[in-house]
Write a structure and sequence with these properties.
Elements lengths: L8 H14 L8 H16 L10 H22 L24 H19 L3 H12 L4 H8 L3 H23 L1
Helix pairs in contact: 1-2, 2-3, 4-7, 5-7, 6-7
Length: 175
């Protein structure tokens, strides 16, 4: 069986955009780094030695996460490469303006979006990654616990703490 048959192209085409967006959780990854990580993930999935199916989505996220962390650690050891933050670290946050929204609603939504973007930009990579997995990817807490190799209670506590911090920021800004 050829390597390309181990993961169907259609499946990879559905996963790749989501994995690409997930990689924005790692602020220090440059665009070429994200592309390299995706290629390494494809190779790792093909080398799994078994047919990869839709139920292996968490496996794909685990592999892409490990590849990203490995690359960042390697870059840190090299000292010859300066890490730059991504220009747009929040591609998964989009404004969803109604076609019928008035100017006041549009202004308030922009203000809320700016607040959330500012909040997210102040977080550590690990916290941004956690929020991305919960809200953008829809993973359950047990799935995230396995994926990030941290206790389930820690996942629940961290998400609750981050929600509380965002709510406090919202209250300070809009009260």
């Amino acid at each position: 069986m050829a390597d390309t048959e181990l993961i169907p192209d259609a499946l990879w085409r559905t996963w790749q955009p989501a994995l690409s967006v997930y990689l924005f959780s790692f602020r220090s990854l440059l665009p070429e780094d994200r592309e390299e990580v995706l290629q390494d993930t494809w190779a790792a999935l093909c080398a799994a030695g078994r047919i990869v199916g839709p139920g292996d989505k968490a496996l794909a996220y685990r592999i892409v996460r490990n590849k990203a962390i490995d690359l960042l650690r390697w870059r840190k050891r090299q000292d010859s490469h300066v890490l730059h933050p991504a220009k747009d670290p929040e591609p998964f946050i989009k404004t969803a303006f109604s076609a019928h929204a008035g100017p006041e609603q549009a202004y308030l939504r922009r203000e809320e979006l700016q607040l959330v973007q500012c909040f997210l930009s102040g977080l550590k990579d690990r916290e941004r990654e956690l929020l991305h997995l919960v809200f953008a990817e829809g993973f359950s807490y047990p799935q995230i616990s396995r994926l990030l190799a941290i206790p389930l209670g820690s996942v629940k506590w961290k998400v609750a703490r981050l929600r509380r911090q965002l709510a406090e920021s919202y209250e300070q800004e809009f009260s």
